Amino acid sequence: MPIGKNGQFISLMELSEIKVKDYEAPAGKKMKFMEKVNFKMKQRELKKNINYDGSFSKKRVEKYFNKAALFGGAISLSGLALGLFLNLIGVLIAYLITTGDSKGRIRWAWIGAIISAIVWGAVLI
């Protein structure tokens, strides 16, 4: 699996055992706290799905091999807060902010807006 901008390769066995700091160096990017937590969770699942002979026990594990799957599930607290407290206006603001992980922020702003709508709906009923 290639990591980083220069395309350095790492085996899946190494990926399942590597420390976060050792992954950050070749990737050339410092991970945020939630990205680190997500990385460790995906790493544990990868370890569980590798057999002793090096084969994989589940086919669905293949989706975790690409970089987007490793970091796509991280929670964007800013997006969640925008959606929870500002509802649809917060989602619009999330679309307007282009710095950082805008895709994750937008996704979590929508999730926050939906949660807020459900809570307000339950309160009003």
Classify the secondary structure makeup into a structural class: mainly alpha
Radius of gyration: 18 Å
Main sheet record? 2 strands, antiparallel
- What's the overall average pLDDT, rounded? 78
User: How many DSSP H or I helices?
Assistant: 6
Strand content: under 5%
Describe the structure.
The chain is mainly α and 125 residues long. 62% of the residues lie in helices and 3% in strands. It has six helices and two strands, in the order ββαααααα. Strands 1-2 form a two-stranded antiparallel ribbon. Helix 5 (77-96) crosses helix 6. The chain is elongated and about 55 Å long. The chain starts with a strand and ends with a helix. Residues 65-71 have low confidence and may be disordered.
Outline:
The chain has helices at residues 12-17, 20-27, 33-48, 67-71, 77-96, 102-124, and strands at 2-3, 8-9. It is mainly α.
What's the SSE blueprint?
Blueprint (H helix, E strand, L loop, with lengths): L1 E2 L4 E2 L2 H6 L2 H8 L5 H16 L18 H5 L5 H20 L5 H23 L1
Antiparallel strand pairs: 1-2
What keyword list fits this structure?
125 residues; mainly alpha; two-stranded antiparallel ribbon; 6 helices; 62% helix; 3% strand; elongated
